[in-house]
Design a protein that fits this description.
This protein is an all-alpha fold. The protein contains 14 helices and no strands. Helix 1 runs antiparallel to helix 8 and helix 5 runs parallel beside helix 8. The longest helix is centred in the N-terminal third of the chain and has 40 residues.
Length: about 450
């Protein structure tokens, strides 16, 4: 009688240990990634305003390109984790290699397009005549590192699928340190200016890709996995990535619409919006770390045919998402008075941001559920549903957001619309998770 209820608690503790073991290193790696851009910004900022403006334009283009291909990590994680759950490590590594080969092909395509069109891309941003040459220089050099960046995404997905989030953390930290040292040395020591910053980042990215490839090669030799490109496998990786690409583009469209609406509200509102958006993105890293754990764990359970285990760990991760969301929301409310002065001394900007931050705080538990279930369905390989759900969310959000300048309410109303968007995502994801249709078992979906 006394032992019966103890079994679920043991299972819960086991799930907790597994989630923490994967999520904490994943969080560290996620936080390390934006530090690359912060380092470049800090170093280039001392060169002059025109150079910093050029870096801003080029970085926006580069980050957009990389974010579009983030499916290389997500799709690879899910596919590899299934193979791991099925007990077939050689096939898991082979699956990851297909993703890496696809990354190289896509990276080569981006380089081929971006090099000749760099001036036109910079011009589309309305870059000033003073900043444009610096933006073009930085973009043309940095784009050479795109293949390495995409290989890092795919290889990170492979290691996550293998239930390893520590190696990506180590590589990200070492890459960040190397990037800072190279940037400082090439910009100031070698006197290369903004070109030195670009070359430093490219070298650091190539070094990170080389480390990942060395790790993958060692694992492939150990388990006898083939490393040669396989047309069918690369094609399958691309097909699995298309729905996630649609999902990502829809999400990017939502963020762009929100920024465009904020710009219509006035200078103080758009300034406050950018501050809030930066905080919202930072909070997302903590929640995304749990989602990454979900991708790896769910894929493994389904690959092993354990639907009950998948359902149990899904439920536990949702509880984690809600709890972390509540904590983050409380921190936002408590830190508001100290947070805003770090970014602005303008009272109008502060007045616009303060009530909107309350909305952001209240929405964090909803965001926790969204991120977790998003990760669960990605881990299950349920990309087509995620794509349609995000397109539907975009269709609901767009008219509501566009009505904000008409109906009034300012930035607070806009972030209420953002909360509606997250609520819509939560409902679509919750309905799917409740249906059980995502629980397709086997080494492949």
């Amino acid at each position: 009688m006394t032992q019966a209820p103890a079994r679920p608690r043991v299972g819960r503790r086991q799930h907790d240990r597994e989630i923490v073991a994967l999520a904490v290193p994943a969080f560290g790696a996620l936080v390390a990634e934006p530090l690359f851009l912060m380092t470049d910004t800090a170093i280039v900022g001392h060169l002059g305003t025109a150079q910093l403006a050029g870096l801003g334009v080029a970085s926006a283009l580069l980050m957009t390109a990389v974010s579009v291909f983030v499916f290389l990590a997500y799709a690879t994680t899910a596919a590899v984790a299934r193979r791991v759950g099925a007990g077939d490590l050689p096939a898991a590594i082979r699956q990851g290699m297909d993703g890496i080969w696809l990354a190289l092909l896509l990276g080569a395509g981006v380089v081929a397009v971006a090099l000749p069109t760099a001036p036109h891309l910079v011009e589309l941003f309305g870059t000033s005549d003073a900043a444009a040459p610096y933006a073009i220089t930085y973009l043309r050099i940095s784009v050479l590192g795109i293949p390495a960046m995409l290989v890092v995404l795919a290889a990170t997905g492979l290691l996550r699928g293998l239930q390893d989030t520590k190696t990506p953390l180590y590589v990200a930290v070492i890459g960040f340190v190397a990037n800072g040292a190279l940037n400082a040395g090439l910009v100031y020591g070698a006197g290369l200016g903004i070109a030195g910053s670009a070359w430093g980042t490219v070298i650091a990215q190539c070094g990170m890709a080389a480390v990942y490839l060395a790790v993958v090669l060692r694992g492939a030799r150990k388990h006898g996995a083939s490393l040669r490109p396989d047309a069918a496998g690369i094609r399958a990786s691309a097909q699995a990535g298309v729905p996630l690409l649609v999902r990502t583009l829809s999400l990017r469209a939502i963020l762009m619409i929100a920024t465009a609406v904020a710009a219509r509200l006035g200078d103080a509102d758009i300034a406050a919006h950018q501050i809030i958006l930066s905080l919202w993105s930072l909070l997302a890293f903590a929640l995304d770390a749990i989602a990454i754990a979900g991708q790896a764990i769910i894929g493994r359970y389904l690959g092993a045919g354990d639907t009950e285990g998948a359902r149990a760990v899904c439920r536990r991760m949702v509880e984690w998402g809600i709890a972390v969301g509540v904590v983050l929301g409380a921190l936002v409310v408590l830190a508001r008075p100290a947070f805003l002065p770090l970014f602005t001394s303008d009272s109008a900007v502060k007045d616009a941001a303060l009530p909107a931050l309350v909305i952001v705080a209240l929405s964090q538990p909803i965001s926790g559920i969204v991120f977790v279930l998003d990760g669960v369905l990605m881990g299950a390989g349920d990309g087509p549903y995620l794509a349609w759900a995000m397109v539907l969310t975009l269709a609901v959000f767009t008219p509501v957001a566009l009505l904000v300048p008409v109906l009034g309410g300012g930035l607070t109303a806009l972030w209420a619309a953002m909360t509606l968007m997250m609520t819509m995502r939560m409902l679509t994801l919750w309905l799917r998770s409740r249906s059980g249709r995502w629980m397709v078992t086997g080494a492949t979906r």
